[in-house]
Design goal:
Blueprint (H helix, E strand, L loop, with lengths): L1 E5 L3 E8 L12 E7 L1 H11 L4 E8 L3 H10 L4 E6 L4 E8 L4 E6 L9 H13 L4 E5 L10 H12 L4 E5 L2 H7 L6 E2 L3 H8 L6 H15 L3 E5 L5 E4 L4 E4 L12 H14 L4 H16 L9 H7 L7 E2 L2
Parallel strand pairs: 1-4, 1-8, 2-6, 4-5, 8-9, 9-10, 10-11
Antiparallel strand pairs: 2-3, 6-7, 11-12, 12-13, 13-14
């Protein structure tokens, strides 16, 4: 079971235009509204791959029933701490000509001071029997920046064999490192900014990533590199690959799909090369779909046939 935590859910409203013009009227070609948030996205991609998953986190009363209905339609069990108010909206304007997305994200409502303790209780309840537990995305106002740090020992007490994945940035990630999670998944900009390093070449990235693994006693790091592919190391083997070739229709949830694909592969006991391959293929299948839609097992297996230049760095 791959369990995901989404403390700051959202409604992703995606508007696709053929070519965005800053000074003229733009006609929307595709308009979608989907419930999202990084943990929910990971669960959606995991379920698309055919693996068992459970989504937990906060939900907001105005949208709680609709969120649960969407997850039920996707075959995803869920349990939430439901709070008053509305879910924040995140606007994604996708320029089809450039394959570029402009993001405008609301911060969301502030949560009550006791909400974090209730969520920690839910984390403990759901950690037992989980193979992976993902801590993903931003925190709503009202939760302290050490919240992910506090989650990790709670998960380990409930199930010492559960492996914790952190997909966050800056202070959230740095604080979580104090409890030595199993896997980190920043993009290259988050990696450079969080760890204050350049890592302009693959060799520099490999060196810096191995240093972080050793310093913080982390099991593995995957760094997504956008159009330059992705990098993965577990400290014993380091791999790089190019992205898969697909028609890009949206970039929402690409990094979340990488996390889903890697967790799926790790759950199967696959080696580092295949872990990276599954992550990149899952992301490729997701971004070939409009709005916040996610990969399928059939789509990923087809992309796994592509030659993506997988090569071992060290």
């Amino acid at each position: 079971m791959i369990t995901t935590l989404t403390p700051n859910p959202c409604i992703d409203k995606t508007l696709s235009v053929e070519k965005f013009d800053l000074y003229r009227m733009n006609r929307v070609r595709v308009l979608r509204s989907d419930f999202g948030g990084k943990g929910i996205n990971v669960s959606s991609a995991v379920r698309g791959l055919g693996a068992a998953t459970c989504a937990i986190g906060f939900s907001f009363a105005a949208d709680d029933a609709a969120l649960r209905r969407m997850l039920a339609e996707r075959g995803i069990p869920c349990e939430f701490v439901t709070l008053s108010g509305e879910t924040r909206t995140c606007y994604k304007l996708f320029d089809e000509s450039l394959h570029h997305t402009i993001e405008i994200n609301e911060s969301g409502a502030e949560v009550p001071t006791d909400a974090g303790e209730k969520l920690l209780d839910l984390v403990e309840k759901k950690a037992s029997g989980s193979t992976f537990f993902t801590l993903s995305g931003s925190l709503p106002k009202g939760l302290p920046e050490d919240f992910y740090l506090r989650c990790i020992p709670v998960i380990r007490r409930a199930d010492p064999n559960c492996r914790v994945v952190v997909d966050a940035e800056k202070k959230l990630l740095l604080r979580a490192l104090e409890e030595h999670p199993f896997l980190l998944k920043p993009n290259i900009h988050e990696f450079q900014e969080t760890f204050q390093c350049q890592a302009d070449t693959l060799e520099e990235l490999d060196r810096e990533a191995r240093r972080i693994l050793s310093r913080f006693q982390v099991g593995a790091i995957c760094v997504s590199l956008g159009s330059k592919g992705a990098f993965f190391t577990d400290g014993r083997e380091s791999w790089h690959c190019d992205p898969v070739q697909v028609t890009v229709r949206s970039i929402q949830g690409a990094g979340d799909s990488v996390v889903a694909g890697m967790c799926f592969a790790l759950e199967q006991g696959l080696p580092p090369r295949e872990v990276l391959h599954w992550g990149v293929a899952a992301a490729g299948d997701s971004i070939s779909r409009e709005g916040t839609q996610f990969c399928t097992r059939e789509g990923v297996e087809e992309l796994l046939k592509q030659e993506i230049g997988l090569r071992r760095l060290s």
